[in-house]
Amino acid sequence: MKFKRLTIEGYKSFRHLTEITFPTSQDRKTIFLIGGMNGAGKTSFMEAINLCLYGAKPDLIFNAINRQEKADGNYSVAFELTLDNDDGAEIIVKRSWSAGTTPNHPKPKDLEERLVVIRNGKRVSVQNKQMWQDFIRALIPPGITPFFFFDGEKIQEIAADDHSEVRLQASLEAALGIEFIKRLADDLAYIKNQERQSYVEISDADLEFKQSELKKERSKLERRKKERLEAQEDLDAFRQQHEDAKQRFQATFHTEPEARETLRENEKKRIHASTRLGQVDNEIKTLCEKALPLAVAGKLFNSLKRRIEAERGSIQQDVIRDNAAALTQTLIQAVQEPEPLYHPPLNPEQRAELEQRIFNLLSQGLNAQEIPTVLNLSERDAARILHRIEEIETSDLFRLTALLDEKPRLDAEIQQLDYALQPSASSSSERELFDQLQTDMEGCSTQIGRKSEQIRVFNDDLLTLEKRTRDLEAEISRLYERHQGSREKAEFIAECDAITTLLGQFTLRLRENKVHLLQEKTFEMYRQLSSKSDLIKDLLIDPKTYEVSLHDRHGSAIRKSGLSAGEKEIFAIALLWGLAQTSQLRLPIIIDTPLSRLDSSHRQHIVHDYFPNAGDQVVILSTDTEVDETYYTQLTPYLSGAGRLHFDPRQELTTFQPGYFWER
């Protein structure tokens, strides 16, 4: 199988329709070299192929739609992949997502996925989209593609530790074809269990209950597996988005995001501390100037206020008594004029009696007790003193101690922040881009944490459900053994058991043969690529655990952790090549930035020995510092063509141009 053409539209920086034609390989010219700087879209190129073949959840597609297109109201993404199958048929896979006529501000759930498969120029029209999705998965199994489409991260995953192969067991068995035999055994077990239900006439209520319970547990188990798979896909997508934003951040600001964020946070703290210090100084000065001198006499305020009020009341009573006659006449006149309050009006005797009572009342006063005058304050002075006492009592003078403690702490904090801060300057456009990228990374980090926790919960649930299912199956088997069945059903179940046993034996032998072939292929490539091939004389792979062990000329084991970083990556590349060869699938090989972490010696081996022999069609995605002019010259005899992904940072737009970096 070979790829012929890929088109991308509306995905990430591929805003406009971008067509990449894969050149036809001739003789040994099997390599298609695509250049691209960091952030130019090399990873997006690989993602486009996987998304076109296998699809993705609407949330992931929605987040990856080109931002300029979103701003223009166009919420759509489209991919098209043309390939030549091994049977000679040309197959075109078209997959797109669009919000259609949805009103403003569509959501991920508004995206509608469309899949079209064209075989030899004729569109295949079927109602069941899943049928053709299964056809694509059978044509290019998704469990196999990680060994044909991989990048530096995949290499690092395999090279990470001494037991990374064990963690990749499911993927390895898919590549070796053992996964299909296991699936056949599972299907056979399912059929056998279905036959068991009619094996005898089951009247035992306990057995029926256990069968129903087992069915529910299996349904829960399958649902949890599906949910975990979806969560893992989400997690991988958010990690990729975070890595894309991080690489773009590093390429723009030449620093790690964490350092930039720390500087930004320190600047905020510095401004806040300086502002607070100024406030504290002003509050201390104000409190000392306004209230401190008078506050010393604060204990006398209550008795002073009572004395002032008492003397004010005594003075008022004296004034009333001294002017009793005049006040009496004023009150009597107010009763009679302008109109009498009484009807009929008071006669002279009544008026005289009222006047005498008012005069006696005013002359005697409300308080017969005499209060000696000590302060002898005027009404104005008394009011001023009382007002000043109230100001002092309601002031913030008592906060002075806390403010005096806070001031040296703020001084020390500002000095520490001044030492940590370094001068920096950026334009408004850089600051805007900084904030945007930082927001993207923070959002992705949050989602990564949530999805990781969700997967952990799913894994715990799966362990519990699997144990519960096994226990129920064992219990049901014991119940079935207590029932007599018909001969035909008994023979059929016995045949199923025999076939299952045979499949188990076949799996063991197949695994041994496949692992032996994988062992040979991997060691063959490792010896070609490794600079220590003369020291390592054998490579063994355990057929049960898939753990790889290296041995020196004396037969002693060499731990993978004892190899250099470059040797570990050489081992990972050799293992990937061995898996591709062992799977016997003739798929294109796509490699993204495989040389970034290798030294010149290992790079030379990769360029000279691996790239030309990796497969019948090899696509290499590289920066100008990986495949430079020297390596480009060495690869020229094997190149079927070359191109470049050009990214315009001002328009945030990626285009494909013929020719490598320095080609015209």
Indicate the radius of gyration in whole angstroms: 44 Å
Please state the average pLDDT score.
79
Please give the share of residues in helix.
55-70%
- What CATH architecture of the largest domain would you give? 3-Layer(aba) Sandwich
For the report, how would you describe the main beta sheet? Answer: 6 strands, antiparallel
Secondary-structure topology with pairs:
Blueprint: E1 2-9, E2 18-21, E3 31-36, H1 42-54, H2 58-64, H3 67-71, E4 76-84, E5 90-98, E6 112-119, E7 122-123, H4 129-139, E8 149-151, H5 152-159, H6 164-167, H7 169-176, H8 178-197, H9 205-253, H10 257-290, H11 292-295, H12 301-322, H13 324-336, H14 348-364, H15 379-394, H16 400-420, H17 428-481, H18 487-529, E9 536-541, E10 548-552, E11 557-558, H19 565-583, E12 589-592, H20 600-610, E13 618-622, H21 629-635, E14 639-648, E15 653-658
Parallel strand pairs: 3-13, 3-14, 8-12, 12-13
Antiparallel strand pairs: 1-2, 1-4, 4-5, 5-6, 6-7, 9-10, 10-11, 14-15
Helix pairs in contact: 5-19, 8-18, 9-17, 10-16, 12-15, 13-14, 18-19
What does this 3D model show about the protein?
The protein is of the alpha/beta class and about 675 residues long. It folds into two domains: about 1-205 and about 495-660, P-loop containing nucleotide triphosphate hydrolases (Rossmann fold, 3-Layer(aba) Sandwich); about 290-395, no CATH class. It is about 60% helix and about 15% strand. It is built from 21 helices and 15 strands. It has helices spanning about 40-55, 60-65, 65-70, 130-140, 150-160, 165, 170-175, 180-195, 205-255, 255-290, 290-295, 300-320, 325-335, 350-365, 380-395, 400-420, 430-480, 485-530, 565-585, 600-610, 630-635; strands at about 1-10, 20, 30-35, 75-85, 90-100, 110-120, 120-125, 150, 535-540, 550, 555-560, 590, 620, 640-650, 655-660. The strands form three sheets. Strands 2-1-4-5-6-7 form a six-stranded antiparallel beta sheet, with helices on one face. The chain has a six-stranded mixed beta sheet with strand order 8-12-13-3-14-15. α9 runs antiparallel to α17 and α13 packs antiparallel against α14 (about 350-365). The longest helix has about 55 residues, at about 430-480. It is elongated. The model has no long low-confidence stretch (mean pLDDT about 80).
